[in-house]
Design a protein that fits this description.
This protein is α/β, with parallel strands linked by helices. It has 17 helices and 9 strands. Strands 1-2-3-5-7-9 form a 6-stranded mixed sheet, with helices on both faces. It has a 3-stranded parallel sheet with strand order 4-6-8. Helix 1 runs parallel beside helix 3 and helix 3 packs antiparallel against helix 15. It starts with a strand and ends in a 16-residue tail after the last helix.
C-alpha cells in the first residue's frame, strides 16, 4: 500500500485521503491502484455504507495525474509505462462511476485533470471557497480525459466546450452553478460535515443541512456569450466568432483558445460529437486517444514548456487549427490493434 494515499475505516464509512501535498496530490499509478483496491473491497463489504474522498493536507484536492512519468515513458519506453498509468487511472474513474454506495468528494482546493476524474463520478461533490477547477490539458498537448468526454458534453449549454478549449479556472460558486459540484460548503465547516457522516448521518442530509448560499457565479454572467460563441462545432468557427466579438471578455478567451494545442482542441471537439452509449465505452475511446496523444510531439513539448523548462512557450505541430486534418484525428480515434483496448475491472460493465 502506497504512503501517498491514506486509507481508513471509521465504522460504516470508508475514508480515502490523497497525500502528496508537495505536488498538490497529483495521482500516481500506485495511488490509483491503492484507491481501487480499497473501493473494490468496500464495494462488497456490507458494513461499509459510504466513502469520503478528500486530501490530507495542503491547498490542493488533486492537481492532476503524473504527466512527468507519462512524458518520460513516451521518450524512453515507447509509452508502455504511460499506458499502464492511464489504464489504472481510467479503471479507477470507471470504478467510482459504477460504485453502488455514496462517495462524497470534497473538492477543497485545486481540482484539475486527474482530480476531476476522481471527483466527477462521485454522487456528492462538495465545492468550497477554495475550489479551483480546470481541465488544462490543452496547455500540455494532451486532451480532456479521465471521463471528460462524458461529463463535459453534459454541462449546460456550451460550458463544456468552453472549459475544454480555454482551460478556464472555475471557483466553487461557478462549479455549483455549472453542475460540477452538488453542494457548496465553507471550508471551515468541512470537518464537522465529515464528522457527522462518520457518526452515521446520511451524507445527503448532512450536506443539504450544511450547505451555504454560494456567491454569484461569474460564469453565469457570460453564459449567453459562451453558448453563442462556443456552440459552434468546429475550432475554426469558434475562433472566428471570438474574433468577431469586440468585447474584452472575447479578447481574453481568444488568447486562451489560440495559445492551446490545436490538436488537443480538435480532439476535444470530436469527443463532444462521439456520443458514446455509456461511460465504459467512453473510457475505451479515451484510452485509445491517450495511447496515441502521449506519443505525439505536442505532448512532450507541452510538458517541457509548462513543467520542465517552464518557459510557457510550447511550439505546437501543427501550429494552426487548419493543419490538424480529419485524417490525423481518424488515426488518433481508431481502435487499438489486437486486444490492447482498455477494459474495466472484471464484473464491472
Amino acid at each position: 500500500m502506497t504512503q501517498e494515499v491514506h486509507i481508513h475505516r471509521h465504522g460504516k464509512v470508508g475514508h480515502i485521503s490523497l497525500a502528496r501535498p508537495k505536488v498538490l496530490h497529483a495521482l500516481t499509478q500506485g495511488m490509483c491502484e491503492a484507491i481501487s483496491e480499497a473501493l473494490l473491497e468496500w464495494r462488497d463489504d456490507t458494513e461499509i455504507e459510504a466513502v469520503i474522498l478528500d486530501h490530507a493536507e495542503g491547498r490542493g484536492f488533486c492537481a492532476g495525474g503524473d504527466v512527468q512519468l507519462v512524458r518520460g515513458s513516451a521518450l524512453e519506453d515507447g509509452g508502455a509505462a504511460g499506458r499502464a498509468f492511464f489504464h489504472a487511472e481510467y479503471r479507477l474513474n470507471h470504478l467510482i462511476f459504477t460504485f453502488p454506495k455514496p462517495i462524497i468528494a470534497f473538492m477543497d482546493g485545486v481540482t484539475m485533470g486527474g482530480g476531476v476524474g476522481i471527483s466527477q463520478p462521485c454522487g456528492f461533490r462538495v465545492a468550497t471557497e477554495n475550489t479551483m477547477f480546470a481541465m488544462p490539458e490543452g496547455s500540455i498537448g494532451l486532451f480532456p480525459d479521465v471521463g471528460a468526454g462524458w461529463y463535459l458534453p453534459r454541462l449546460p449549454g456550451a460550458v463544456g466546450k468552453f472549459l475544454a478549449l480555454t482551460a478556464a479556472r472555475l471557483d466553487g460558486a461557478e462549479c455549483l452553478w455549472a453542475g460540477l459540484a452538488t453542494h457548496y460548503i465553507p471550508a471551515d465547516h468541512l470537518a464537522k460535515a465529515k464528522a457527522r457522516i462518520i457518526a452515521g448521518d446520511a451524507p445527503g442530509t448532512v450536506l443539504d443541512d450544511m450547505s451555504a448560499e454560494a456567491p454569484a457565479a461569474r460564469l453565469a454572467g457570460n453564459a449567453e456569450a459562451v453558448d453563442r460563441i462556443f456552440g459552434h462545432s468546429t475550432l475554426e468557427a469558434i475562433i472566428a466568432a471570438l474574433k468577431a466579438d469586440d468585447s474584452e471578455w472575447a479578447a481574453k478567451e481568444l488568447k486562451a483558445v489560440t495559445t492551446k494545442c490545436p490538436a488537443t482542441s480538435k480532439v476535444a471537439l470530436r469527443q463532444f460529437a462521439a456520443d458514446q452509449p455509456d461511460f465504459a465505452a467512453n473510457m475505451v475511446m479515451e484510452y485509445r486517444i491517450a495511447s496515441r496523444m502521449m506519443l505525439r510531439y505536442d505532448f512532450t513539448e507541452g510538458v517541457r514548456a509548462v513543467l520542465v523548462d517552464k518557459d510557457g512557450a510550447p511550439k505546437w505541430d501543427p501550429a494552426e487549427p487548419e493543419g490538424v486534418t480529419d485524417a490525423m484525428l481518424d488515426e488518433i480515434f481508431t481502435p487499438l490493434p489486437g486486444e490492447q483496448d482498455w477494459t474495466p475491472f472484471p464484473g464491472l460493465a
